[in-house]
Amino acid sequence: MSLFKVVLLLSLLSLPDLTFGYRPIVIFHGIFASYSSMDGLIDMIEKAHPGTQVTNIDDYNGVASLECLWNQVNGVYSKIKSILQSASDGVIMICYSQGGLVCRAILESYSHNVHTFISLSSPQAGQFGDTYFARDLFFNFSKKEIYRVFYSRPAQDISFPNYWNDPFHQDLYNKGCNFLPVINNGTSKDYRTNFLNLQQLVLIGGPDDGTITPWQSSHFGFYKENSDTEVVPFTSQNYYKEDDFGLKTLQANGKIKVYEVSGVRHAHWHVNQTVFNNCILPWLV
Question: What's this model's pTM, rounded to 2 decimal places?
Fold first, then answer.
């Protein structure tokens, strides 16, 4: 081997992280979960891409996940701000369930360099379905009655009502819900500008989820007004057609990938190896 090749090889080996070249990843869990619930996902990432810098947000665990979402947005951003600032090639965010709403609000509220946002079974268009924790917390109100509670001022200090989207009471939803209508309607011009810093949006969900209702909410689709059976796809939603926070522009630029995966229950998205291999791993570059 010539002296030039030896010097070149030694120089390459001395460069930090050159053998990996993967963007840092930030992960955030869902409602009533803790950061440790995402360990299975981290294991899959580390096996596929050894050496990847993974930050698993250890905050808003368990019942603390019920804190209002705007507080979570500001709290999570404060934890990842330095990571974003130090990643010259951008960051990947993988956010699960309720955590996906927190992450999207961060991407709208703050200027950022997040390259890819993977929304993993997250109710991006809202939730209108009975769940065990809603029944336990709110005294067995049915989904068609609970708007009376959820759109009250005290209830908006709790995370779950922040994205309760009642198709039969849209006026009250828009007036009384202080989170989801705000980020969906691009209330601030900066929301759209910031969100369009994304280079890739990945939406993952499926018909057997069993929790996100309708399941198409994971793809920004939602029930038609005054119906809980007919779902309007995201490309026919007003916030898409008006490009309120940039979805239409991202789609036009080929920056949205939608995965519809059957046979996966809500609690299993972040531990399912097939979901990881087919829907997540291709974007961890």
Answer: 0.91
